[in-house]
Amino acid sequence: MKAAGFSLIEVLVATAVVAVGVASLAQVIVLSARAARIASTTSVTLLLAGQKMEELIGNAANPPDYDRIDYLGSDGAALGFEKIAPAGTPPSGTAYIRRWSVTALEDGAGESIAIQVWVTPWPDAPGQTRLVGVKRQRAG
Fold first, then answer.
1. What is d(CA 41, CA 19) in angstroms, rounded to the nearest whole number?
2. Contacts by residues 75-82 (CB-CB < 8 Å, ≥ 24 positions apart)
3. Measured between alpha carbons, how far is 46 from 140 in angstroms, rounded to an integer?
4. Of 4, 27, 39, 59, which has the fewest beta carbons less than 10 angstroms from its beta carbon?
């Protein structure tokens, strides 16, 4: 009569199959966590860029041709501000760098401006957002 149970080889093969499956699953979890982190960062940069774009478009007296940098903390609060050329070292606690520019367009009448806003995570990481808009000044 044969004894019931598993042989050592069967146990080793089953263990190897489970180990390969767990290792593959671990890689998927790591990739998913990275993708979620990038998506979260992109959402924040999009929100910060959108807020600045709305502010600049809503400003009735946009002076043409300027370029600025804003340093933001992880909560989106401004930590510092400066003209773009040259940009200095970000202050302590900087989580995002927001740059924006307003440029007069050559449309013949000088009535249109291009507005660009970039937000980049600091230090440089995936998730940068860039928004571009055109505003036409109304003749009064």
1. 33
2. 76/44, 76/47, 76/48, 76/51
3. 33
4. 4
pTM: 0.74
What does the alpha-carbon distance between residue 42 and residue 45 come to, in Å, rounded to a whole number? 5
What whole-number distance in Å separates Cα of residue 117 and Cα of residue 114?
Answer: 10
pLDDT tens, residue by residue, 1-31: 566 777 889 899 999 999 999 998 999 999 9
The torsion region of residue 25 among left (phi > 0), alpha (psi -120 to 50) and beta comes to alpha
Query: How far is 119 from 99, CA to CA, in rounded Å?
Result: 6
Strands (E) across 62-128 are located at 66-72, 78-83, 96-104, 112-121
pLDDT of residue 121: 93
